[in-house]
Design a protein that fits this description.
Blueprint (H helix, E strand, L loop, with lengths): L13 E2 L2 E4 L4 E2 L5 E2 L3 E7 L9 E5 L11 E2 L12 H5 L13 E2 L4 E2 L4 E5 L31 H14 L7 E5 L1 H12 L6 E5 L7 H15 L17 H15 L2 H7 L20 H16 L2 H13 L2 H5 L4 H4 L6 E7 L7 H13 L4 E6 L7 H4 L1 H11 L7
Parallel strand pairs: 1-7, 6-10, 6-11, 8-9, 11-12, 12-13, 13-14
Antiparallel strand pairs: 2-5, 3-4, 5-10
Helix pairs in contact: 2-3, 4-5, 4-8, 5-7
Length: about 400
């Protein structure tokens, strides 16, 4: 069972996204249920005869199921890490968002693991979400789509694995929102997960993160073209608000040092300021506008709203521990690897330390590595070479560095 049709050295090759229709409804934390849920997914590697080598990869807010290899068709790139275009050039257009981490001999080694990657519930890249057709009305859900949580996303992933005939996971891994899903897996299904790899993530978003997400959502909902979320088929989309949301979000993924090194206060197209309030005078302004323009072409504004809300609701201590993180994690049985980055102020190392301490206090096997790197939250997409030996050692693929 593999969706990779060809494979170059170090690559899973050309991959086609697949789709599965879940046989039953997904019951949601909000009290509603979704029927006729479709899930987009990709697989890389070969499933063992014992079906015991499955590694689930969970994506962050703006990702999708295409995590590795080259896309079988034209698509907008989801490789959003800081400086991705400088790194990838034109080759990055069809590459999966974590291609540097998934493949033969890589951190998530497809010579050993059967890697599964899905588009999360509420998505806009093949999995049922706000832009999908509501079977009850025959029209897109829009803002009538139910509010979903990270736990709902994980239950949907569990249902997909049931369809694929997979009972347990050798590991589940992800960064940012994907890391939240990975840890949620270990909490909801402690007997079905052997290992967790949680990168640049948290057990609950800190108030500053809550604030930036609130600003991003408001920028979309205050755009008149949002139309209360029912903009599908009207010929108008909240692209302006969505672009601002993307610019706000993108800045939170970076660090002051990385922005200073790449942009400084360099002007975009002249030797001196031109005394204009409309044009992009500085390189950093032009860069953010470019990020906004490319993002609105491939991402649905309602999906942004729902996914952002899901990650702000995520709070393991409140949801599973009556306010205690230790209690929330007391039934976790998986070995856990935590990786954080010194310059990440959105998902700071403190959050990973708190998870580490809570697991350690209850005797759970856990290790934490904090990497000194300058790129902010985007480090989890950029510092692949430094993460790889840590992950391979944790997964017992080679000796620890």
């Amino acid at each position: 069972m593999s969706s990779a049709s060809t494979r170059a050295a170090g690559s899973v090759g050309v991959v086609e996204t697949q789709y599965a229709d879940l046989p039953g409804p997904v019951h949601l934390d909000c009290g509603r249920e979704l029927s006729r849920v479709r899930v987009a997914y990709e697989t890389y590697g070969t499933l063992s005869a014992q079906r015991d080598n499955v590694l689930l990869v969970c994506h962050a807010l703006s990702g999708d199921a295409h995590a590795a290899g080259e896309s079988s068709g034209p698509r907008e790139s989801t490789r959003d890490g800081f400086g991705a275009e400088d790194r990838d050039g034109s080759a990055g257009k069809g590459l999966g968002w974590w291609d540097g981490m998934i493949g033969p001999g890589k951190a998530f080694d497809t010579d050993r693991f059967f890697v599964v990657s899905t588009n999360l519930l509420g998505g806009c890249a093949g999995t049922t979400g706000p832009s999908s057709i509501d079977p009850e009305t025959g029209r897109p859900f829009g803002a009538d789509f139910p509010v979903v949580t990270v736990a709902d996303m994980v239950r949907t992933e569990r249902a997909l694995l049931d369809v694929l005939g997979i009972e347990r996971l050798a590991a589940v891994a992800g960064g940012s929102l994907g890391g939240m899903q990975a840890l949620q897996w270990a909490v909801l299904y402690p007997d079905q997960v052997d290992a967790v790899v949680m990168i640049a993530s948290t057990h609950a978003l800190h108030p500053q993160g809550l604030s930036w997400n609130a600003i991003a959502r408001d920028s979309i909902m205050r755009d008149p073209d949002w139309q209360g979320g029912q903009y599908y088929g009207t010929g108008r989309k909240p692209d302006a608000g969505m672009g601002v949301a993307r610019m706000v979000g993108h800045v939170t993924y970076l660090s002051q040092a990385s922005m200073g090194d790449k942009f400084g206060r360099r002007l975009q197209s002249s030797d001196d300021v031109r005394y204009t309030i409309t044009d992009a005078e500085f390189q950093v302004e032009s860069y953010l506008r470019h990020q906004a323009e490319t993002f609105v072409r491939r991402f649905d504004a309602n999906t942004y709203l729902y996914t952002s809300r899901a990650l702000t609701y995520f709070d393991l201590a409140r949801q599973h521990g009556e306010g205690s993180l230790e209690r929330a994690l007391e039934h976790v049985r998986a070995r856990t690897l935590l990786i954080a980055f010194t310059s990440d102020w959105l998902y700071p190392p403190q959050a990973s330390q708190e998870i580490h301490d809570a697991l350690e206090s209850t005797g759970k096997p856990v290790e934490l590595h904090v990497i000194d790197a300058p790129y902010g939250h985007d480090c989890f997409l950029l510092e692949e070479a430094r993460q790889t030996p840590l992950i391979r050692a944790f997964l017992n693929l080679e000796e620890a560095p």
